Amino acid sequence: MKLKLASKPLMALFVAATVMIAGCQTVQPPSATGTTTPPAQGENKPADQGEKATEPATTEPAANQPATSGDAKETPRNETLYINGIQWGPPSNFNLLSGNPAFPINYGNSRELVYETLFMINQLDGKLEPLLGTKYEWTDDMTLHIELNKDAKWSDGKPFTSDDVVYTYQLGKKYDINWSNYWAYIADVTADGPNAVKITLNKDNPNRLTVLDSIELIPMMPKHIWEEIEKKSNNDLATIRKEVNANPVATGPYKIYFYNDQKITIVRDDNYWGKSLFGKLPAPKYITHVIYKDNAAGDLAFKSGQVDVSQQFIPQVWNMWKNGAPIKTYLKDAPYYVPGSMPSIFFNFSKKGLDNPDVRRAIAMSIDYKKISDLAMSGYSAAMQPSLTLNTDAESKYVDQAAIKSLQWTTDVKAANELLDSIGAKKGKDGIRVLNGTRLGPFEVECPYGWSDWNAALEIVAQSAKAIGIEIRTKFPEAPVWTNDLQTGKFDIIMNTPAGGVNPSQPWSRAHDIMYSKEVAPLGEMAFWNWGRYKNDKADQIIDKIPSVTDQAELKTLYTDLTKIWLTDIPSIPLMYRPWVFHTVNESVWKGFPVDGDGSNIPPQIAMDGAGIRALYQIHN
Description:
By secondary structure, this protein is α+β, with helices and mostly antiparallel strands. The protein has 18 helices and 23 strands.
């Protein structure tokens, strides 16, 4: 299979499922064949405020759903960690190659429970922590050398070796699956003895950042199991995808125990190899994900202590602990959750009026970001500080904050009106401005119907623009229509999330999504980044250069220059900081969940993925 080389960020491909949890669905870059990777149908629906999640079947299992497995009896409450908000709808399979695996196999939000990755990302500081891999280093400009943990074993007792790593990567070259696009940047993956591998970059399209993404994103698969499945399926991906894989052989601390259309339970593997890495086994013997019919049912169960960790959007979460309930968020006070993405509006640069950077700046200055946070996000978004980076330790270090301060805007309606006056945009009798013969409106701003926090945010954008003489009307089509409008450029202003999540390629991947103009399809054809068709040659040059730079001072200079360009040209406007995970815990049964300032450096991703798995070794009854 020959893959087309393209410079597109890959993190977004791999974490589409996580996006479903953290907020509204976003359109992601394409798979290796150039088509968009869709979210799994019926799984990981947006647990979003006001949106009803997919209801599970009430009697018969869904089509292609495996029969129930394991012991249907209730597990002891003091040995079971209950979670919600990850799985929506009944499980159909536990097959990583299916495109629709159920919890805890789904790609972007529970990777370390059953199938593990080589390294674990820490959402707090952006660092990669050892897991199946012990260390990695660039031995030259084109070669990443990874050493593997010699203690690691598969759940059937066979050793985990470099052959398994090579096999897993090669699956993405052989088939069109979630991690296929990494091969746009990789020339080869080879074993260097039984406990080390080398990843060689593609000399025509090298990108260190996306390759580092791969070592914390791709779940390792056992060669001795899956090559037999391949053989049985005659190497036909459609047939391989039908494999239910009800009892996965994997390296993680848990195994599938029981599942039906109401819940999925996993049980601790007391022979887990990682006892030597973590010093002990995870505290919960069982982890159960109950499949609730909607957010309201999940919230009620969480508040009453039937659920320990909630990954659902809970409006006005502070009401949960008003009467002394032992409920906590990761941050004690607003915004309560750690930011992980910046849902933004994008401008179509072909539209008269919107092609003027001063008009775009005036719109940015008019927006009431506090109202968006308070009304649309229940206060879960911190004060807006416009930048290409999140205001977190993991990202803010890349930009000289003092150098960009003079270019950052704040909500200032008076100054926005003065700016429009200064460029000769005069108000007509109807209060709407006209600039160089072009009436500034009506412009439509759109996002999908039913994504209530985004819908509310765009209503505020429209109201804010009216105060400066620009007419913006909201448009909320069904999601497929929005997707088509976004990709083909059939919009005036549109909302989407550029490359969310914390990973080694941030903030480069976000900047790429917003600003990179190379290989972007023209208006009318499908584009998977830079939806407004913004073009700046200097920005392209910086985005091309960043992945090959290792000197931290030079990186800071490059990111600062790139951010200045963005703040000057304003191809997009972030409307909110959105949590990547909604880490809300009830300590009625389990205590000791990580919180900000506890000194543990455990990110708020318990029962999720990455370094958040370490919380399972800290909690107790």
